[in-house]
């Protein structure tokens, strides 16, 4: 019996994938029940409501307006260090990118997702590791269950992308945002590096901002939001991630043992620590679980995410905790790992809560 149901599931998945309509197409069609392959088992989101923080708890907000001032920089370093240690997530304001640029970026991604099927479907494919790809659920065939979002993804570096490969409706805005986001990411990486007692330029020298993937998600209205997720709980694999979003709620971060609703600050950029940074910092900075609830609002949730990671592995093709941070008192808590291990754990399974960190932690018992 199980074989039949799994075969039917694969058939349904393929029909959905080959239709190229995405969840936006399903939502627009006026369906009132979602397909079975989107339905999460009751135990996977057991706490959708129960632990979500109802109070005003929010991730730290850090003002970068005095980042170049010798009198104020150390204070900002301390704030970012504390946020990266205790939360793994923070928002930055006065980061140097004009608010209209943020708004235009979100508007352009929304405009792409609202284009007719015949325009979007030209970009629909499953080549995750290069170029431009539009699809619903990158891990559609690897994950145990699908989630309620579609994405436009573009590799912006290290190999420069030909802007002509991007959809015309969001081409200029994606190129502009990539430049702006990279500046913000490098500023923040400098502060994070100093927070570890290293030189400001250390992470840039290690190519930590060179591999860049820009992803524009849409979370359309879901008719049965309690039965599925927008994106399942996961950590990000890279160094840091920058996130812009509109005002529709849904993003939650695990803090302690509680899911906290993230409220975006107007004009702010949300930044989080990835697994790679937790490892190279030898556990000083934390990569934390986060997820997006399925959208119950009529208005779609739009998020623009840029993932930053290194482009040049060390000579022997390995990486691990930075040697400058290790001592007899602070031995490595992670073993070195290869580029192949890093990629395999991300591309061979669905997005979930297990990560490279689990695999390479050294047991000191």
From TrEMBL:
SUPFAM superfamilies in the record:
Clavaminate synthase-like
Cofactor(s) annotated in UniProt: Fe cation
The source's domain of life comes to Eukaryota
Locate the Fe2OG dioxygenase domain: which residues? 207-310
Keyword match Protein biosynthesis:
no
Question: What keywords were assigned to this record?
Answer: Iron, Metal-binding, Oxidoreductase
Q: Which molecular-function annotations from GO does this UniProt entry contain?
A: dioxygenase activity; metal ion binding
Please name the Pfam families in this protein's record. Answer: 2OG-FeII_Oxy, DIOX_N
As for family, the record states: Belongs to the iron/ascorbate-dependent oxidoreductase family.
Q: What is the protein's name according to its record? A: 1-aminocyclopropane-1-carboxylate oxidase homolog 4 isoform X1
- Gene responsible for this protein: LOC18598281
